[in-house]
Design brief:
By secondary structure, this protein is mainly alpha-helical. It contains 16 helices and no strands.
């Protein structure tokens, strides 16, 4: 169901859009956790460490593609909000062309550069082969991931967040079944986990595409309409490339932290990997809020409803603070239990050692998760309004800060300090991006007649 976010009460509209995103994201983490649980149960802690150690490399490439598709579909959302049906279809065609080209280029680049990247990450010899095998298969399946992300972004641009949920549930169920088959029944090790992931993502992507073509007329493009419009493609790349580079630069910062952590040994890496899985659960509502912020801001920017954007932004900030206050306390409480649940195939002594490192992560990172929420909201409201350049610059600053703080802590042998590098970085960059947004917003308000602003804000009910 398509949702026009330029009309009606803001809070109910946002909640209708956010709820399916949260549910879908949580189910996605369930099947990611299933990978780790089955690997920890049937293969061991080294397998968990191997998969966790290459997670940053996986996000490096997948993040670029996610940023690119999200940026391309900002134009779709703006045209949808403005009621430009022909412009929406041109934007869909442009997104498809860019997605196919990037899937091919990304796969080739990932495979060619993989060996060099792994050497730079200081991986332990006992997990190197498993880590390489896992990430190679993930890179080979990038096309399926790109398909799902592109279609999901287009559906969200039109205000439809429910359809992606249904196909994600299908993917999650299939992934669980394949995990059991390819790890527990057929002992394929970490390769089985990677194969299960790419098959489930490809199926979900194909199902999403069929749904979009058959059920969403606004996004359906006929052969006659499917033409290369270089003006549209360049406009999409102008929005998409800064977002893609922002994701990539952020991922490079995560690679820097992972490289620093790899110098501590296998158990700290395993503890960090489990803690990150818990962290990813915690972050899903934050991701949902930020994705909703992009669509909300983009649709309302299309109609120049700046007062509505301001009110929606303030509501999102309030929701983020409430959620993060609860989740930070909960995640610190359950962290050790999560490690014992996932790493069940090792001795009690080793499990407790791994759990101690996971708890350090919880205390030094998850305690300050609100800083990440505020940073992501700042990024996404700027991107939704079409200002992708500033989040990209923020990502560059984030990369530099992460390198500096994590490397400094690693040299001192401070595991907690490496973990704390993230909230320090989030806080610094978030403050900068909010300052930029406030400046831009104030300038936009000066460009509108006072009376028209008052009339607009009178219609923007919470």
């Amino acid at each position: 169901m398509q949702l026009d976010m330029t009309r009606g009460r803001i809070l109910p509209t946002l909640l209708r859009f956010i709820a399916p995103l949260i549910i879908g994201n949580l189910f996605q983490q369930v099947y990611n956790l299933t990978d780790m649980y089955i690997a920890g149960r049937f293969i061991g802690a080294n397998a968990v460490a191997a998969v966790g150690s290459v997670g940053a490399l996986m996000f490096l490439l997948l993040g670029f593609m996610m940023g690119l598709t999200s940026g391309c579909t900002v134009l779709t959302a703006q045209r949808f909000g403005a009621g430009d049906a022909e412009g929406v279809k041109k934007s869909v065609a442009g997104t498809a062309i860019i997605s196919v080209a990037m899937a091919i280029a990304g796969t080739l680049a990932g495979l060619i550069l993989l060996d060099g990247a792994l050497k730079l990450m200081n991986m332990s010899a006992d997990i190197y082969d498993d880590g390489k095998a896992y990430i190679q298969i993930i890179y080979l399946g990038l096309a399926g991931n790109m398909l799902y992300n592109s279609v999901s972004s287009l559906l969200r641009a039109a205000g439809d967040s429910k359809a992606s949920l249904y196909f994600l549930l299908l993917s999650a169920g299939l992934n669980v079944v394949l995990d059991i088959l390819l790890i527990a029944v057929i002992p394929m090790g970490v390769k089985g986990a990677a194969i299960a992931t790419i098959i489930s993502q490809t199926v979900s992507g194909a199902a999403s595409l069929i749904y979009m073509v058959k059920k969403v007329p606004a996004l359906r493009v006929s052969r006659a309409e499917f033409k290369i419009d270089w003006g549209v493609i360049m406009a999409q790349l102008k929005m998409g490339l800064p977002m893609a580079l922002q994701f990539t630069i952020t991922a490079m910062g995560i690679v820097a932290i992972q490289s620093a952590l790899n110098t501590f040994g296998t158990d700290p890496v395993a503890g960090y990997a489990v803690a990150v899985k818990v962290d990813q659960f915690v972050q899903q509502p934050i991701f949902a809020l930020s994705m909703a912020m992009t669509t909300f801001a983009a649709q309302n920017k299309g109609r120049e409803l700046y007062g509505r954007i301001k009110k929606g932004t303030l509501l999102m900030i309030g929701l983020a603070i409430l959620y993060c206050s609860f989740s930070a306390a909960l995640s610190r409480t359950i962290m050790r239990s999560a490690v014992r649940f996932i790493i069940s195939g090792e001795s009690a002594q080793r499990i407790e050692a791994i759990a101690s490192y996971a708890q350090i992560y919880a205390n030094n990172t998850l305690t300050f998760i609100v800083a990440l929420a505020l940073l992501m909201l700042a990024r996404n409201v700027l991107q939704g309004c079409g200002y992708s350049f500033f989040p990209m610059i923020g990502a560059v600053l984030e990369l530099g800060a992460r390198f500096y703080f994590s490397a400094r802590a690693a040299v001192q042998g401070d595991f907690g300090g490496v973990c704390f590098a993230q909230p320090i970085t989030w806080s610094i960059v978030g403050a900068i991006l909010w300052a930029v947004f406030i400046i831009i917003y104030c300038r936009k308000m000066k460009g509108k007649e006072f009376a028209s602003i008052k009339r607009e804000e009178g219609l923007c009910q919470y």
